[in-house]
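Risk register update: the risk of archive-format incompatibility is retired. Evidence:
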Amino acid sequence: MVIRKEYLSRLLAWKNEQVIKVVTGIRRCGKSTLLKQFQDHLLEDGVSQEQIISINFEDLDYEDLLDYKALYAYIRERLCPDKMTYIFLDEIQKVDSFQKAVDSLFIKENTDIYITGSNAYLLSGDLATLLTGRFVEISMLPLSFAEYLECSDETGEQALASYMKFGGFPYLSQMENTAEKVDTYLEGIYNTVVVKDIEDRQSRKNPDPNKRKITDITLLKTIARYLASVVGSPVSVKSVSDYLISSGRKVSPNTVNEYMEALQESFIFYPVERFDIIGKQLLKVNRKWYIVDLGLRNHILPKKRYDLEFSLENIVFFELLRKGYKVNVGKNGDTEVDFVAQKQGVLHYYQVTADMTNEDTFDREIRPLQSIKDNYEKTILTMDHMTQGDYEGIKVIHLLDWLLEKN
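Archived output:
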């Protein structure tokens, strides 16, 4: 079992604080395991077992608690008087009107509540309205490369190649990785997310009236396949619509937008807005989309070879998220910077390339950073070993070294 140290430390930082801790992320990224690791820490720290109430709503043993009133009554009877009770509710979105039970428990004394969900829709609508200012979201991702390396027999670039091929879903690190077994496992995750989680999004008793129903799973998978094929490239609703129409599929831009939102809410794809470096403002057109796991991408797009640089770019994007940055794609006049990473008002510019030993490639990658007229850090991440160094303040770092840096 991989100890998810970064996420565990975030939960520990919020322990006993009067906010609801909401852990979100794609299925099988390790949310349930994280809650179990946190509970083990509580027990080691002197908390008694009776102070911990843990319910996983994917377990049939708790089927009777899918009604919010039954859930509330069950937990209320088990609260410890004069002691903190730690309440863990896993995959809470399965409970209709769960926010009513959660809010009622929250206002009681000596309760510390942790919930997980596999769809961003969890934090929209009623929950966001009811609990505004009273919850903190911890967004969870599959294993980072550093975490993957901890449980791998491989090292260096060989390990990175396997990471890009198989991905970082935690269970894969515990099984014998053959291509067939990995693909079967990823197929199960993908189908569950696309069919089950996205259908759950629209089957609640009080769905958002502004949300259209996702009824065409074939269309949804077609759009997912297209987004996977253009990772790291500018994408608009119109470009996706045009692709579908050119393939003989008549569909409106509004429908395409709704289906793309569903893929975003289920944490398969993450859209990234462009940022005008000169004007310091967001641009609302032609966002880039990145996929949460490259193994999942390889499953969606089997038996094909894709641009190595886009795969590396995908890895860097999610590593920046793990490091706590808000990430945008940079536009500086006629040039583009792969990522503008922002934390606490401080910017950091990144370019990502597989190899810079070719002079033309070197110039192409360094020129956009040279044209930025501010003093924020500028870094190029590459897989070659020859060009590392400092070029008039622009650092060129080997990608593996950067991925293994401590946050």
